[in-house]
Amino acid sequence: MNDGFPLYAIARRLRAAPASRPCGLGADLVAWLSFALVALTIAATGSPYVARAAATGESEERATYRVVYTAWLKPGDPMATVRIRIASHPEWVRWMKLRIDPSRYRDFKGTGSVRVVGDQVEWTPPRKDAWLQYRVNLESQRDVGRYDGRVTQDWALFRADDLVPPVHLDMKDGTRSQSKLTLDLPEGWSVATPFPRYASGRFAIENPDRLFDRPTGWILAGKLGIRREKVGGAQLTIAGPTGQGVRRLDMLAFFRFTLPTLQSIFPAFPERLLVVSAGDPMWRGALSGPDSLFVHADRPFISENGTSTFIHELVHVAMGARSAPGADWIVEGLAEYYSLEVLRRSGALSERRFERAHAKLAEWGKQAGPIDGLRSSGAVTARAVGILRAVDEEIRAARGGAAGLDDVVRLLARGVPVTRDDLRLAAERVAGRPLNSLPAP
Prior knowledge:
This protein has helices at 9-16, 27-45, 48-56, 160-163, 248-265, 309-319, 328-346, 351-365, 378-398, 405-412, 420-431; strands at residues 63-74, 77-86, 93-99, 105-110, 113-117, 120-124, 130-137, 140-143, 146-151, 155-159, 167-171, 175-184, 190-192, 203-205, 218-222, 224-231, 234-241, 272-278, 286-289, 292-296, 322-323, 417-418. A 6-stranded mixed β-sheet has the order 4-7-2-1-12-14, with no helix packed on it. A 5-stranded antiparallel β-sheet has the order 8-9-10-15-13. The chain contains 11 helices and 22 strands. Helix content is 33%, strand content 29%. By secondary structure, the chain is of the alpha+beta class.
């Protein structure tokens, strides 16, 4: 079995969506789409058990084995020590393979059989006392002198994904992990994570779309300032190291104003959202993660062109979408499109400035080359915004204003790579007919 892809995310999201929303179609067609997607899951994964559970909506009463992750952090030391311990029923895990960057992960040891081969660590746990331990460099640079993972004497900011690299494993049929994370921190440090916390201080690592849970999203530890508040049904946490110029209350006010609009567009928006921030030498941009977001302390809430880096990255959080090859313009275009749309709908941007922003993006988009490159940015993303706006207008014309791009994006927000065909099929289902606004393949 595989930790890799969320096998029944598509059907689960379709089943959870309000009947009036998906494509404006009836419940029977939604059920048919769910069934068709499940059939594809079976074909792709050979896993009828998972597909059956997705199609019928049955609760997966799987036997669980406990996995405990422990990470030790030290002030100023980028090398953290991590231990993976199978605390119960290790005999249910036949083997585990970790995909690593050998320049960042080292010193592997543990019980059972541990073998490092290139960029892969193969672990066969024993039937008792099963643990694997290693060291990982939590610091990483996105640009020269700019970090997207950093450990100082007073704080550490990094992705939880770096603590435990991607895992592939073979485990007993009908089982799943129940995982927890312990962070052993220097004295006087506190921590902000996107995870629920037990009274014991451990964190619950839960992902219903996976049978093996590992920590993902942003983590900030150290001498912190933290603000927490419930906003539109989401538990919002804003955290930053003290003395870093993080405007926590300003961020809180901005999200109180805009987040409910974003949640109305994406009904499956996370129930917990962590926003972490710090100043130099962190990368001077913003980066999304599962249920979490990093933004540099100097980034404006609304840029001079009317878009918002904050909302752009939150759209990525809400969709949980990745792009298939040649489709990054779709994911980035949607994030930029809704960064304007959310500001307009929430009243943070006037209609005049909204239209002016679209006009500037349209002009910029004329400079774009092919839109199906590996990465979308600048003029390509600007052109993508114009395409998506045209799709919205054509759907509204076809449906008499009863549907639009919101209905399309809810179908695409399913946690799997988005393709150009996905966009076309979803848009034409919502419109009820072929569309002229989408570029030809």
